[in-house]
Amino acid sequence: MDYLSNNCTFQLLTKDLSASLADFSCEKEPEIQKFFRQEALDYAQARMGSTYCFVNADRRVVAAFCVACASVSTDEMPKSMRNKVNRNIPYIKQRETYPAILLAQIAIDDRFVNMHVGDELMGFIKYWITRYASQIAGRFLVVDAINNAKVIDYYQRNSFRMVFASEEEEKEFCEIDAQQPLKTRFMIADLKLNTD
Known about the structure:
By secondary structure, the protein is an alpha+beta fold.
């Protein structure tokens, strides 16, 4: 269960390290695979987000994630979710917009998925953001999760909640035709609840 902490080093993606991502495999999600193989370094150089990797002794990237600054606008949320978000914030501090951190991409190399490092990775990300990356204030961690039952379950298991109660509600908000599939679900986790 502690494969990442016992066998890997945590590193910011650099030009030198990007060569190790050339064979990063995430075949079920080709767009995510393409991001880490071809786009992550450019994304960082454009100051759009930072990618971090767990690298094992063989210089293989086991897991990677990209984070960026974001915000959560409660006035655009359904009332039930807005109330849930505000419930944990003292009334005097409640706002229409809260600072957040976007988990822009996250993946585990296919060769390591059977080692059950996903929950360890998410636990690390939350801990790292609240403890070591605190120069970037963010109350919430947000993600556009791939709309797949296993992916949604992963995020829910790791304290994320759906912002929209149904796919229909999210499609309407995003102005997606009702007949079109919803590719991602907007989810949110309260980082303060993970540190108290």
